[in-house]
Amino acid sequence: MPSRKFADGEVVMGRWPGSVLYYEVQVTSYDDVAHLYTVKYKDGTELALKESDIRSQSSFKHRKSQSSSSSPSRRSSSRSRSRSRSPGRPAKGRRRSASQSREHKEDKKKTIQETSLALPVLVLFKPSENNTKRYNGEPESTEKNATSCIILEQKLKPDLEIKRVLEQYSLRSRKDDKKKEEIYSEKKTFAAVKPIEKVPTKTKELEFGGRIGTFMLILLLPATVFYLLLMCKQEDPSLLNFPPLPAVESLWDGRVFGVILLWFFLQAVFYLLPIGKVVEGLPLSSGRKLQYRINGFYAFILTAAAVGVLLYFQFELHYLYDHLMQFAVSAAAFSLALSIYLYARSLKAPEEELAPGGNSGYFIYDFFTGHELNPRVGSFDLKYFCELRPGLIGWVVINLAMLLAEMKIHNLSMPSLSMILVNSFQLLYVVDALWNEEAVLTTMDITHDGFGFMLAFGDLVWVPFVYSLQAFYLVGHPTTITWPVAAAITVLNCIGYYIFRSANSQKNNFRRNPADPKLANLKFIPTATGKGLLVTGWWGFVRHPNYLGDIIMALAWSLPCGFNHILPYFYVIYFICLLVHREARDEHHCKQKYGLAWERYCQRVPYRIFPYIY
């Protein structure tokens, strides 16, 4: 194994990926497996560099121009020349030496090269946008809009024409031509390729309380689901009224587990149907982009048709209500088995396919957070499939089963107004998620988190059985509300949905195409990664406006259940805690990723989720 050349904490000169520019960086760590140095630039940006892209500061010390510009023989011959000068030569005070003339030409050429290097950086919005300005001594702009880059390109066009003329009529050696061709080829590569991402290394900062915290969560998450379902069955679902534990044998039913397997298989078949468009996800650490088929909404339509056929043939859908606990246990067992399979297969996955947050080397932690980023069986992406299909569509089916159970148990000709509101609000949420399925490709779940127990249990158990808690509660604890109250709750839900959808659409459209004319009025802070941080629109109001809309909708889902018990408000309480924790994770990752640009964004947008509060 080769020994490392640079030590941790050493200040060296690192080449910016895709360019010929070197900047002062500090070595923070070294990966013995990938043989990469993690370095930190002055603005806080961290990248992984090869040893060949790093040089010591001593190698950048300037040499005297005379010693480098002329050979010893030429210097000795110059001493023997006559001091007399011809009439055409300038006076001594104005005369410039050959070396000085060459230095002047080199400086001029260097300035033109730096100008041409800046063009693809500024026009194409590439990684060195933040850094090259600072190190070249240029003033740093904190905000840009979509038209500013075009104006700058037009301003630089005359300089490029001057450069072309100078190069056409200048005298230079073939060696200089070769160097210029190498520089030009590197510039073309820099302008064409996407930003080089950091190759996944060992996870050093553990989240969720580390190994102990993740171990406790593996036990507490299933226990919480079972506790909530048992409480909803109680006549008095008070927190102090702990429900009696059911017999263990009553929690398992082979037929129920068969229904869970059939449901998962049916959704997988819908996922594999050749309908819907195929899109590319965000670039991976290797630069490769995975392809995803967007057909979740079609899967929902086909599922609705299948459920309609069952109801037509008098299938008792309220069977779900009578055996909901058994369904939850079977789904938990299936998610556990899936998690074990995912971790086992991840042990053979290549290093570049591991999740950046789930590669700690600790079994429990990696098992919980997910060791492999995008586990696939052929073209079947397991994480992407589970993210929206079985759990989210299953949530709607369970809600419908609760609605039918309420009508049967209470002998109602139509569902209660509270049940209608809960079903309608949550149906809108699910349909919106499936209609805008492509947006999930930019979320942290897809781009950062591996697929392990956390997402497997969350997608297949927590979402369908906890998110349907309000409908399950209303079956055993009917609540009557008036039409004016229902109208007020509906308005609240619409406000939350509008904030949630418009904020997400604004972010997704900007990420997909920052040059979209429809987004020309949006201002952003450029970053060293090539992405911009919006400081106008919803994202200039708070840092996570989509979270704000989510929380408002969660409150609207709970209000139809009344105020007799806190149990139906578990969802909104949990959701606030979840989003505050996720916001803290986002802050940490964005600080590492964007460096100084993120600090400027936080100064411009001080509130995280709740304006003037948090």
TrEMBL record:
The answer to whether the entry has keyword Plastid is no
Keywords associated with the record: Cholesterol biosynthesis, Cholesterol metabolism, Cytoplasm, DNA-binding, Endoplasmic reticulum, Lipid biosynthesis, Lipid metabolism, Membrane, Nucleus, Oxidoreductase, Phosphoprotein, Receptor, Steroid biosynthesis, Steroid metabolism, Sterol biosynthesis, Sterol metabolism, Transmembrane, Transmembrane helix
Chief location category: cytoplasm
How the protein sits in the membrane? Multi-pass membrane protein
GO MF, any single term: Delta14-sterol reductase activity
Record-listed E.C. numbers: 1.3.1.70
Instruction: Give the subcellular location.
Output: Cytoplasm; Endoplasmic reticulum membrane; Nucleus inner membrane
Question: Which pathway or pathways does this protein act in?
Answer: Steroid biosynthesis; cholesterol biosynthesis
GO cellular component: a single term = endoplasmic reticulum membrane
Q: Where is the Tudor domain?
A: 4-62
Question: What CDD domains does the record tag this protein with?
Answer: Tudor_LBR
Which reaction equation describes what this protein catalyses?
5alpha-cholest-8,14-dien-3beta-ol + NADPH + H(+) = 5alpha-cholest-8-en-3beta-ol + NADP(+); 4,4-dimethyl-5alpha-cholesta-8,24-dien-3beta-ol + NADP(+) = 4,4-dimethyl-5alpha-cholesta-8,14,24-trien-3beta-ol + NADPH + H(+); 4,4-dimethyl-8,14-cholestadien-3beta-ol + NADPH + H(+) = 4,4-dimethyl-5alpha-cholest-8-en-3beta-ol + NADP(+)
Name its GO BP terms in alphabetical order: cholesterol biosynthetic process
Please note every region of biased composition (Basic and acidic residues): 101-112
Segments spanning the bilayer are 212-230, 250-273, 294-313, 325-344, 455-475, 481-500, 521-542, 562-581
Bias type Basic residues, positions: 76-97
Q: Low complexity composition bias: which ranges?
A: 66-75
For region Disordered, the annotated ranges are 53-112
Q: What class of enzyme is it?
A: oxidoreductase
The record ties this protein, via InterPro entries, to: ERG24_DHCR-like (IPR001171), Lamin-B_rcpt_of_tudor (IPR019023), Sterol_reductase_CS (IPR018083), Tudor (IPR002999)
Which family is this protein grouped under?
Answer: Belongs to the ERG4/ERG24 family.
Instruction: Identify this protein by name.
Output: Delta(14)-sterol reductase LBR
Which organism was this protein described from?
Loxia curvirostra
* Origin organism lineage: Eukaryota, Metazoa, Chordata, Craniata, Vertebrata
- Quote the gene name from the UniProt entry: Lbr
